[in-house]
Each structure stands twice: as C-alpha cells, then as structure tokens.
UniProtKB/TrEMBL annotation:
<protein>
    <submittedName>
        <fullName>DUF5133 domain-containing protein</fullName>
    </submittedName>
</protein>
<dbReference type="Pfam" id="PF17196">
    <property type="entry name" value="DUF5133"/>
</dbReference>
<dbReference type="InterPro" id="IPR033457">
    <property type="entry name" value="DUF5133"/>
</dbReference>
Length: 75
C-alpha cells in the first residue's frame, strides 16, 4: 500500500482539528461539509473506512516519522 506523505497527513489532521473546533462553536452546513470532506480524504489516504480509524491510522503513521525526517518542514 502506498503511504501518504507525512506533511500531507499532518495538514489533514490540523485541518480536521480546526474544523472540529469550528463545528463546536458554529455548526453550519458548510462546516459539516468541509469536515466530511477532510474525513473522507483521511479515510482514503489511510486506507480506512471510518473517520475514527483514519485519525488513529494517520497519528500512528506520523508517530513513525523520526526527528531527522525533514519532510514536515516543507509545509
């Protein structure tokens, strides 16, 4: 299976967290749609079927990134 680039995953996780915070303050149709889009992209990127599994998989993949990996600096 192909693995997504760490920067891509990191950005998806950041966007997901920001949208969850926004949804807690402002539960609009636009925020829900954007959160669904990011959740879907996380699922596709991690090869999972649920947002919960995708979040766990993305975090696990990023946990394997070493401190000497400068790929996160390119963001």
């Amino acid at each position: 299976m192909l693995r997504p680039h760490p920067t891509f995953l990191y950005n998806l996780l950041e966007t997901h967290a920001e949208l969850r915070d926004l949804q807690a303050r402002e539960d609009s149709a636009d925020v829900r749609r954007r959160l669904e889009d990011v959740s879907y992209t996380l699922c596709v990127s991690t090869g999972t079927r649920t947002p919960e599994a995708a979040l766990a998989a993305a975090k696990a993949l990023l946990a394997g990134v070493t401190s000497q990996d400068d790929s996160l600096l390119a963001a």
